[in-house]
Amino acid sequence: MTLAYVALGSNLGNPKRQVLDAMDALAKLSATRLLQRSHLYCTPPWGLLEQPPFVNAAVELDTALSPHALLDALLAIEQQAGRVRTERNGPRTLDLDVLHIDGVQLDDERLTLPHPRMAERAFVLLPLNDVAPALWLPGQGVVAELLGRLDLAGCERLLAP
């Protein structure tokens, strides 16, 4: 089993419910245990700014799934939630991203680990800091230190997991 970290986000439909339901779906994945859930956070949109705010969270998993099998499981959960990919950084019912898997560095056509842009994104680091503040991300740094460098304007903690 290996520790893996996943980001969750939604800004369409009922975003809180989408994220909480996705956490429940992650807890039911085969060969996987959900170890920790972050708080839920309301965060401003990133990239395409003319859209509703997001609800974001992160989880820590202990999994025997390979990186690509975990990615496939996340994509299936997104699809079950009604995710339609229309525009990059646009509104979505559910977005699940593999952020980091302990001991894995990967860069192929489907997946890059650790996630290459998470150090720039408060909506990722804020919830990840709840579950793994001391996590060292190869080539980027320690989660809590990276978070300390970001502007958290517009970010608000909503509720406990």
Write a short abstract of this structure.
The protein has 161 residues and is α+β, with helices and mostly antiparallel strands. The protein has 4 helices and 10 strands.
Characterize the structure shown.
The chain has 161 residues and is of the alpha+beta class. It is built from 4 helices and 10 strands. The protein has helices at residues 15-27, 67-80, 122-131, 143-148, and strands at residues 2-10, 32-37, 40-43, 54-63, 95-101, 106-107, 112-113, 136-137, 141-142, 156-159. Strands 1, 2, 3, 4, 5 and 10 form a 6-stranded antiparallel beta sheet that branches. The chain has a two-stranded antiparallel ribbon with strand order 6-7. A two-stranded antiparallel ribbon has the order 8-9. A hairpin with a 3-residue loop joins strand 8 (136-137) and strand 9. The radius of gyration is 14 Å and the shape is globular. It starts with a strand and ends with a strand. The model has no long low-confidence stretch (mean pLDDT 94).
Decide which structural class fits the backbone: alpha+beta
pLDDT average, as an integer?
Answer: 94
Euclidean distance between termini CA atoms: 23 Å
Largest sheet: 6 strands, antiparallel
Estimated share of beta-strand residues: 25-35%
Shape descriptor: globular
Radius of gyration: 14 Å
Q: Estimate the helix proportion, in percent.
A: 25-40%
> Which series of helices and strands comes N to C?
EHEEEHEEEHEEHE
Quantity of strands, as a count: 10
Low-confidence stretches: none
SS field, number of helical segments = 4
